[in-house]
Amino acid sequence: LTDATEAALREQLAAELAVRKLLTQELEGDTATDDQEVEAFYRQNRTQIVQPATVHARHILVKVEAGAPRALRNARRHRAEGVRKKILDGADFAATAKAVSDCPSAAQGGDLGTFGRGRMVAAFEEAAFARKVGEVGPIVETLFGFHIIEVLEHNEERQLSLDEAKEQIRQMLSQAKWNEAYRQYLETLRKKDKVIYLDQLTVGP
Which tens digits make up the pLDDT trace of 100-158? Predict the structure, then answer.
């Protein structure tokens, strides 16, 4: 960086810090959320306050590049079927994943951890949520290649208790209050024909 660029960055940072300090002073009292507000929100919305269903799975990937020739894809599928047969015949899944999987998760024995819907590509996700615990189903093809999937655990959707949800609710309500107070504060400055540098910042409580 040039001296001029560094000086400009320091000036911008100083201005942002000054604005944030001002906002904290001006808005802090308007954004606090007490336990009664949290409990009222929970009572009114508890049927929607849930922990989504998740699945814990591991896999072995036989990778195929997008656009690979049909002959290569068939060869890779055949390889995946052979690996799956070894698993069904009693080979240890984690050890096999470490030895042959083309996914970085091979280092963890193919373990992908626990994930909810919307985290994986559609075909993989559908297969993982459909599997029974311990079941090694048919080969699944995605844009990454061919997968051998084993589900280790299913966790069904469940309603969260107030104790489990209260901090998340408090943060959400405080953020909403902050956003509204911030909007009103900007309106006040605009009416006074102040320079609105604040519009360029992303701020929050």
Answer: 999 999 999 999 999 999 999 999 999 999 999 999 999 999 999 999 999 999 998 88
pTM of the model: 0.63
The CA-atom distances, in angstroms, between 190 and each of 16, 61, 196, 197, 205 are 19, 57, 7, 11, 22
Tokens for 137, please give them.
Answer: 């189903």
Q: Are 173 and 35 in contact (CB under 8 A)?
A: no
Any idea which residue has 């909007």 for tokens?
A: 183
In the block, residue with structure tokens 């540098």 = 197
Cross-strand pairs, 154 = 55
Q: Residue 65 CA to chain centroid, in angstroms?
A: 26
80 closest CA partner among 37, 31, 137, 30:
137
At residue 145's C-alpha, the angle toward residues 142 and 149, to 5°, is 75
The tokens of 169 are what?
Answer: 């609710």
Cβ neighbors of 139 (< 8 A, separation 6 or more) are 77, 80, 81, 84, 146, 147, 148
Q: Which stretches in the chain have pLDDT values below 50? A: 195
